[in-house]
Amino acid sequence: MLESKVHRVRVRLSARDDYHIEIGPGALETLGAVARRSLSPYARRVAVISNRKVFNLMGARVMKDLRAAGFAATYWLMGDGERHKSLLTAERALDFLTKSGIERSDAVVALGGGVVGDLAGFVAAVYLRGIAYIQVPTTLLAQIDSSVGGKTAVNTDAGKNLIGAFHQPRAVVVDTETLRTLPPRELTAGWCEAIKQGAVGSRRLFEETRRFLARGTSLSRARSRNKLLEPAAASADEVVTMAKLIAAQCAFKAKIVVGDERESVERLNHRSRRILNFGHTIAHALESVTRYKRFRHGEAVGYGMLAAGEISVRLGLLGASELESLRAAVSLAGRLPRANDLDESAILTALSSDKKAVSGHVQWVLLERIGRARIVNGGEISPRIVRSSLRAALAA
Ligand SMILES: NC(=O)c1ccc[n+]([C@@H]2O[C@H](COP(=O)([O-])OP(=O)(O)OC[C@H]3O[C@@H](n4cnc5c(N)ncnc54)[C@H](O)[C@@H]3O)[C@@H](O)[C@H]2O)c1
Ligand SMILES: [Zn+2]
Prior knowledge:
This protein has 13 helices and 11 strands.
């Protein structure tokens, strides 16, 4: 791959945790070299954690590249889907690391979407009290969001992501070519999170994202169902523009993370890492009332952003035309599953049991304008406003 095609984003954490994200079409080819550069000089073994679907698509290339760089590379495949992001899977993965003789100076490579990334990162965080890992995200959501920032987790019966650790990767390798095989709904979900990042922190990023979506090309828009299994036939120009956009998204997420690495509870200003939860209060409730079956997470965030936008307008924080821009961007991301048949009261009940509450209150991330968020304590918003906002958003 041509070096000029690679975007490099530096995540400026403490000297010990500083790392780079390499982004570009074909970036996978650089994995071996990146691993050599970013891991300990004593690293000999690398354990790739992935799932069957992703490994069938690109596992052979990854293994070849790591071996060519001199690593003894092995792999372990977990089940596909959110329900496999569990303590049981983590235990099995840890067992695999032990049996493979992975030592403290060795590393894990997470190859897949956010589910694989979160699980593999968690395993790397606790194995021998923490070993190095490299993220190789292969979904849009993982490339712009979950692989950046060092949050790792598994789900339990009590809820999603409640058991986890902050553990920064040594490097992130984002190959935008991998998105060609991504199912359309996964693209829509990823684009919703991309819109979110612009909406809460940068009008420029929001506009750049919206413009790309408005082009209506194969990676920006859900492909028709009968083309589901064919790789998206994206033009070279589209791939290059997309890599630039993904790099801008990663840079944004990295900036927020660096400013508030551990999402401090006290911090409530517009630079808190918590602004990234925009749309998530409602999204979690929607996912919960539909038992995680109807929506991809990012799709639920699409509705959640509209609801939070409606609340912002009703509180007089946000102008109606700004909400219109947000609505237009979300619709460009792709069609969301129907939501106007859901029981409002059940959603409101689910809201009040949000696990991210602080001192008993839901913390709403609202908008003052596109590019600027504000955190508002739920106690300050009347239930009537929440209900009517929800209704307006779900009717969309
Ligand atoms: N750590 C964080 O900061 C953070 C942030 C946001 C989300 N998350 C977590 O991320 C997870 C969701 O991640 P996701 O949306 O990537 O879902 P996912 O990992 O389930 O991937 C979606 C689907 O796409 C498949 N897939 C992956 N790459 C592919 C490719 N290149 N081609 C074809 N198919 C491919 C997967 O096998 C899966 O079936 C959730 O568990 C969420 O909690 C974490
Ligand atoms: Zn999210």
